[in-house]
Design goal:
This protein has 289 residues and is of the alpha/beta class. The protein has 2 domains: 21-138 and 268-286, HUPs (Rossmann fold); 147-260, 3-Layer(aba) Sandwich (Rossmann fold). The protein is 31% helix and 21% strand.
Length: 289
């Protein structure tokens, strides 16, 4: 799996072209929110944007989706990034994964209903994604991120990938939030608190080894979803392990999530021909001049 890459603009004079952000668009409300977030992020970081038009389960023709995409781009305030469009006639997850293989981020929207962890497209993307997945929920307030909030939850201590991804960023302030939960008294509670403290110090040590500056950090008791609902503010971008999504009330959170895949996982992407992408082109006619 490629090394996690932070959301940073290239340094002045840097020769390397920033890797693109990929977002799925089906015309649904969830995909519209994901698109808006991706446009704002790319505009702020000078990354190119690739929009994958997803047709599965929809009677909308490509031209109708392109019209909806054009209208949505016109609603996003501020400077627009360079936009490419790919139309897929195959499985959405396969097409998204293929497009994201050499990118920086995959952005998906989360609707109000469905299973707690999201639908099958999201599940497939999280299982195989070679890059972090940004999940934009229905209550998320859209805008450029102002702070990275790294969450260390019970069961996530074995995988350093979320912390490593956040540590590589130099554009945003960083905060660490460690959550824990236990019975109100007894040895089990003391043990849970000790484990939380160990996780907390391990994250701080990892950040210190990465050469980061001062980091604000706090240990909070409570279920991770409840703590996030209380502790996050507009402008936060929450960084968690991809496996944590099932325990989080994504449909209620007012902030997007970055779901970082495990660092030790072997990624097997679908064959590009299976995605059956048809017609990749510059979307000059879809964006404002």
């Amino acid at each position: 799996m490629p090394d996690p890459e932070p959301m940073t603009a290239p340094a002045p004079g840097a020769g390397a072209r920033p890797r693109r952000v990929v977002v799925g668009f089906s015309g649904s409300g969830a995909s519209r929110r994901a698109l808006r977030w991706a446009v704002l992020e790319c505009a702020a970081t000078a990354r190119p944007l690739r929009v994958v038009l997803v047709r599965e389960g929809s009677t909308a023709a490509p031209a109708h989706l392109e019209q909806a995409l054009s209208q949505e781009l016109e609603r996003v305030p501020g400077r627009e990034p360079a936009v490419d469009v790919t139309v897929t006639t195959g499985q959405p997850a396969s097409a998204l994964l293929v497009e994201a293989a050499d990118g920086a981020l995959l952005v998906l929207g989360r609707g109000r209903g469905g299973a707690p962890g999201g639908g099958r497209v999201l599940a497939a993307c999280l299982q195989h994604a070679p890059v972090p997945v940004v999940l934009v929920g229905p209550q998320a307030v859209l805008g450029p991120p102002r702070r990275l909030l790294v969450v260390s939850a019970p069961g996530s201590a074995d995988d350093p990938a979320p912390v490593a991804w956040a540590a590589r960023g130099d554009r945003l302030p960083l905060r660490v939030l460690t959550t824990w939960q236990a019975p109100p008294a007894g040895a089990e509670r003391r043990h849970a608190h000790l484990l939380a403290a160990q996780r907390h110090h391990a994250v701080l040590a990892q950040l210190g080894a990465a050469g980061g500056g001062a980091v604000r950090a706090v240990v909070v008791e409570g279920a991770t979803g409840d703590v996030l609902a209380r502790r996050t503010v507009v402008g936060d971008l929450v960084v968690v392990a991809a496996t944590a999504v099932r325990a989080l009330p994504v449909h209620l959170l007012r902030v997007p999530l970055v779901l970082v895949p495990p660092s030790s996982r072997t990624i097997v992407l679908p064959d590009a021909t299976a995605a059956t992408t048809a017609g990749r082109r510059r979307a000059a006619g879809l964006a404002r001049a």
